[in-house]
Amino acid sequence: MTDFAPLLQPDRGQPAHLLYTVRKSGFDEWFAGQPERARGALEAALFKGKAGQFALIPGAKPDDWAVALGLPEETGPWDLAGAAARLPAGTYRLAEGDAGPAALGWLLAHHRFDRYRGEAEPIPERILLTADPARIDDMVRIAGAVALVRDLVDTPAADMGPAELAHAAEAVANANGANFTVTQGDALAQGFPMIAAVGRAAIRERAPRLIELEWGDPAHPRIAIVGKGVCFDSGGLDIKPSSAMLLMKKDMGGAAHALALASLVMQARLPVRLHLLIPAVENAVSGDAFRPGDILRSRKGLSVEIGNTDAEGRLVLADALALAAEKEPAVIIDFATLTGAARVALGPDLPALFANEDRLADDLIAAAAAVSDPIWRMPLWAGYADMLKSTIADINNAGEGGMAGSVTAALFLQKFVPAAIPWAHFDTFAWRPSAKPGRPRGGDALGLRAAWEMLRTRFGG
């Protein structure tokens, strides 16, 4: 894990190179105010303040140089990420103002997933000075949480099965003094029959389990965070084509988000009683695999007809949500890489948000806007519940007709959450198909910062 703490330091007047942040709309005025030496360098670099442009400005002495960086018209957390990835090692401060939210992009530009590289190229250490030292710890924690999601999702399934996911959760629990438990074997089959059924086809070393973490004062408001931990999804007997399996190492991305959010709650000492639940399975193919047409009994007692074994994520989440609800939390948040339908509707950047309470949805949307972590609310449209009807069980796990797939998946989950408990469901991609400044191609946290901002605002006092 990248150590972000040294990269963001309080500004105590120490020597540093200046960073001039310029927008195209204000370029002419800014350019006119620069000394002749600087104007010549900027003209030679064809610098016009366009977003992403970059130019070095020489000073009077060889070591006295500065940097001009073109920014988009609207500020955001990734404004400095492009520069942070290209600058020489050294210490920097903004010529005007403070980095604010853009410090996150500065930090994450230094993150690399290099576990499998023979000799990783060292990353130059670029230190950013800030006049707002009170925010340093929080920014470093958030960067660490995003990096945790990326590292877990990027790890191949051979090295990130249910057992390894449990080890990762245990490490977070131990680091924060949380209680950690794992339920598996007969106890899992008895208490969480759908988690056991989905994961039973995997080999013994990759057996299914329910991972739990509890932390905080029991007198504080209880919150539950649930994450889908399908460590690899073959589709089961409704097997996926090979092209659809290429990214299925990321099907535990919901669990990665949930674990990272739990770590933020604990590191910030939020005054809550935290309950983290991760149903961890591999949806494999064997003679013991659950089948289309099977009827599974859920923890809640509802019977579920299996219309599609590739709709397994909602099954394991349902048992975990049922347990979370039994504790009567003040709020439940779940993350899951649940449906391709959400990606068709909203693309890779926008997690679909479903919520059974308008206030919770509004708070999450406001939090997402505040931290530039976009989400989009989708409807829990009750009229589509008929698509999940079964003639022989209480509900079918897969809607008929192929329409409204993300909505019917959310409606299935809603069956396992009492209406009195505020609940939010993020159908997130957990993956970035193409690189952007500070955001390499690969696993990514989408919706994590929005959820954290909502919890921090609501429960932080």
Automatic annotation (TrEMBL):
UniProt xrefs under PROSITE patterns: CYTOSOL_AP
Domain of life according to the entry: Bacteria
Single GO BP term: proteolysis
The keyword Hydrolase belongs to this UniProt entry's keyword annotation: yes
Gene Ontology MF term list: manganese ion binding; metalloaminopeptidase activity
Cytosol aminopeptidase domain: residues covered: 308-315
Enzyme Commission identifier(s): 3.4.11.23
Pfam families per the UniProt record, alphabetical: Peptidase_M17 (PF00883), Peptidase_M17_N_1 (PF21337)
GO CC list: cytoplasm
Family annotation (SUPFAM superfamilies): Zn-dependent exopeptidases
Keyword terms of this UniProt record: Aminopeptidase, Hydrolase, Manganese, Protease
Entry's transmembrane regions: none
PANTHER family xrefs: LEUCINE AMINOPEPTIDASE-RELATED, PEPTIDASE B
Family that this chain belongs to: Belongs to the peptidase M17 family.
Protein name, UniProt field: Peptidase B
Gene assigned in the entry: pepB
